[in-house]
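Students often ask why inverse folding is considered easier than folding. One informal answer: many sequences map to the same fold, so there is more than one right answer. In these notes we will look at a single instance of the problem. The structure comes first.
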């Protein structure tokens, strides 16, 4: 920067500027380094970060329209939530109560609950109703520090209802401050009209629904702005088998989508190996992934995304072995999996708190997993996830002087101020 450059916003006197800076996703020992600059400052212009460094070096080089004194506070990147189902109709509070009383997953399904219950409510809701409820969730996520969000379809499960969800997702990206990345999850569950015939529904997804989603994407604001579209599939015993999952993902690849997969949540039957073969951007859940596939993940470019809020919500004590994944060299990201059934959780700080306690991530590892690595899991690594010159100015001013308080204190909101694309949000 030249002498006395005029900028829009200058954050100075931060006890720590935690950059999470990295060329590509972090792995191995780099996960333990959050990129802390003591007594740091950040300069922002036109919605972009133009400089980050020690305040002593930057203070004399900028004059700012607005200055925020961060004395006694730390600053970090906005969180990136790389796996959510934010758009849905209705709720499943009754199932929550049934589960507490001992009902099994299959008993809840038999009573008309589970994903199919949300499908009924989502199909019955209008675009406006879905947009209003999802926007309220995004407001809460933004207040908790999430500035970039992946959102999946998967509660429509017909061409018209999946497209309705995509229309809602595009509207949210247009109208809400959060940046959104879309994922087509037509193969989330077998809808009632195909009950017991996953094979026929797989053909419907591949031949009818996915091509419509691809045509929608081609003329969407996402394609126009170079934001990727993903295809995802729930590869599980009670959903889609290995062959069906492969066909859905391959059809998505042919349509120009990038790939993700819900895999190894309950059963491991080769889904991770198949996803790696197809060059998946991420593999998500991974609760029962075996040692050989963890080692293979470590040698791949695919990002591992454990979803610990699910395990916590279901009252489980077994969690995905994120520690082994990191030790194998895998790039690990975290996400909420926000949804009305298994993870009614909008909070990345809560997810980080759970991951630190049950998966033995350090605060630095949890923060890197929730920022730079999560950004790379959804194709946003060049734009978001770290405090580096040139990137979107998605920045959090934390209430504490030490960023480790994000997961250390839990149950509240560690975020004092959210800055989105350089704009200070009043939340």
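Output (designed amino acids):
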């Amino acid at each position: 920067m030249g002498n006395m450059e005029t900028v829009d916003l200058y954050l100075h006197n931060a006890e720590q500027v935690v950059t999470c800076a990295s060329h590509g996703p972090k792995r191995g020992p780099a996960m333990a380094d959050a990129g802390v600059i003591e007594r740091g400052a950040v300069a922002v212009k036109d919605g972009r970060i133009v400089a980050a460094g020690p305040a002593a070096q930057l203070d004399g080089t900028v004059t700012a329209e607005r200055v925020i004194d961060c004395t006694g506070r730390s600053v970090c990147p906005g969180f990136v939530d790389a796996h959510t189902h934010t758009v849905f109709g209705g709720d499943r509070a009754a199932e929550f109560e049934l589960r507490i009383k001992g009902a099994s997953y299959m008993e809840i399904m038999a009573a008309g609950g589970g994903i199919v219950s949300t499908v009924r409510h989502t199909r019955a809701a209008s675009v406006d109703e879905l947009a209003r409820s999802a926007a309220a969730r995004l407001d809460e996520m933004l207040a908790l520090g999430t500035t970039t969000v992946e959102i999946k379809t998967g509660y429509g499960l017909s061409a018209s209802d999946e497209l309705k969800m995509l229309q809602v997702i595009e509207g949210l990206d247009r109208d809400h401050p959060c940046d959104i990345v879309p994922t087509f999850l037509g193969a989330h569950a077998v809808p009632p009209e195909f009950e017991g015939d996953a094979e026929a529904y797989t053909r419907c997804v591949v031949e009818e629904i996915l091509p419509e989603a691809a045509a929608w994407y081609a003329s969407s604001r996402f394609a126009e702005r170079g934001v990727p579209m993903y295809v995802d599939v729930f590869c599980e015993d009670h959903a889609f088998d290995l062959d069906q999952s492969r066909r859905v993902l391959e059809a998505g690849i042919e349509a120009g989508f990038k790939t993700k997969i819900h895999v190894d949540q309950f059963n491991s039957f080769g889904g991770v190996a198949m996803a790696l073969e197809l060059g998946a951007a991420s593999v998500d859940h991974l609760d029962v992934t075996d040692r050989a596939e963890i080692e293979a993940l470590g040698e791949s470019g695919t990002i591992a995304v454990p979803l610990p809020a699910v395990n916590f919500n279901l009252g489980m004590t077994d969690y995905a072995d994120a520690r082994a994944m990191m030790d194998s060299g895998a790039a690990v990201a975290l996400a909420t999996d926000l949804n009305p059934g298994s993870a009614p959780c909008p909070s990345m700080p809560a997810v980080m708190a759970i991951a630190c306690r049950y998966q033995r991530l350090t605060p630095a590892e949890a923060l890197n997993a929730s920022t730079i690595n999560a950004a790379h899991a959804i194709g946003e690594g060049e734009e978001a996830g770290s405090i580096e010159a040139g990137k979107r100015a998605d920045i959090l001013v934390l209430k504490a002087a030490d960023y480790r308080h994000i997961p250390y204190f839990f149950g509240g909101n560690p975020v004092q101020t959210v800055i989105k694309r350089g704009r200070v949000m009043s939340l």
